[in-house]
Amino acid sequence: MPLPSHPLRKLGFLTIGLFDGADPRPGHESTLEIIELGERLGFDSAWVRHRHLQYGISSPVAVLAAASQRTTRIELGTAVVPLGWENPLRLAEDLATVDVLSGGRLNPGVSVGPPMHYDRVKEALYPDSAGNEEFGYERVRRLLGFVRGEPATDFSGTEGFEVFSDRVEPHSPGLGRRMWYGGGSLNSARWAGEHGMNFLTSSVVKAEGPEAGPHSGGHGFAGIQLSHVREFRAHHPDGEAARVSQGLVVIPTDGATPEQRAKYEKYAAERLPRTTTPQGPARLLFAPDLVGTSAEIAEQLYAHAAFREIDEVAFALPFSFDHEDYVQILTDIATKLGPELGWRPAA
């Protein structure tokens, strides 16, 4: 097995936080318990997905506010908040509040684009302005400005007994450096770099030509993802030191029961066909899920062109597993796979 060029510096995980619509509390409680477990295992970060009008976390900022009061060290992230559903000024207030409550541990990840099924939800979401809403990068730029302390109004001072600020309050000075963009295209990578964000790259990328872009290190998913990492860093003020986190689905089986191994292998096999060719009009290409012992997964990661150029990850937990499955997977990642990749748990 080839040695890594440098050890993995930060190890995180991502969960969707599924729940039963008829009884949603146990699912939310399970998510919080998984985050607490992650801290005990020494993970550097825990990330939650964002799902609107589904049976997954619809308000990750609220969930992470709760998690911030049940943990003391682990960083807490969103991967990602789709800004088409959000007012950037109000979201900036929520993010800053949770960052203050967490002691500066929040890592907000965001993305752009129209809300999913926009034609069917626009009357509920934007009844008076649906045709005029802008869902591009400008929405991110506004959020960044508010988080970083740019004026939100031309009024400040005292009015009666009330004192007003011209910027979003509370202001958390370090939060602006912990803003992430979740992107799967060269344009997104370039924009995030130019605007000084960190970059989240996941198991889904946009297939952009056979050569996968000007910085490609090869064909297929890994080559495309590598081209995005290099495009991002080529346009970021920090260059090669700019932060990139990779989010593949990994399922180590070291501590799994035979029944769990069979479930995991079936799950990966059912999802494998979508990894062979680009999917849909957007030409989305999916990475295969990595299932096996930690030694086997580490060997596959060392052979992955993009993985070789990053030093932090947020491995995604599968969507539809049970709580005990997540406990086993996280435990194996922290105690087996992480050390195989040169990572050491946080104190």
TrEMBL record:
Keyword Oxidoreductase: yes
Annotated Gene Ontology cellular component terms: cytosol
InterPro entries: Bact_Lucif_Oxidored, Luciferase-like_dom, Luciferase-like_sf
GO molecular function, one term: monooxygenase activity
Domain Luciferase-like: 28-303
Entry keyword set: Monooxygenase, Oxidoreductase
Gene3D superfamilies recorded: Luciferase-like domain (3.20.20.30)
Keyword Oxidoreductase appears in the UniProt entry: yes
Identification of the protein by name: Monooxygenase
Originating species: Streptomyces ruber
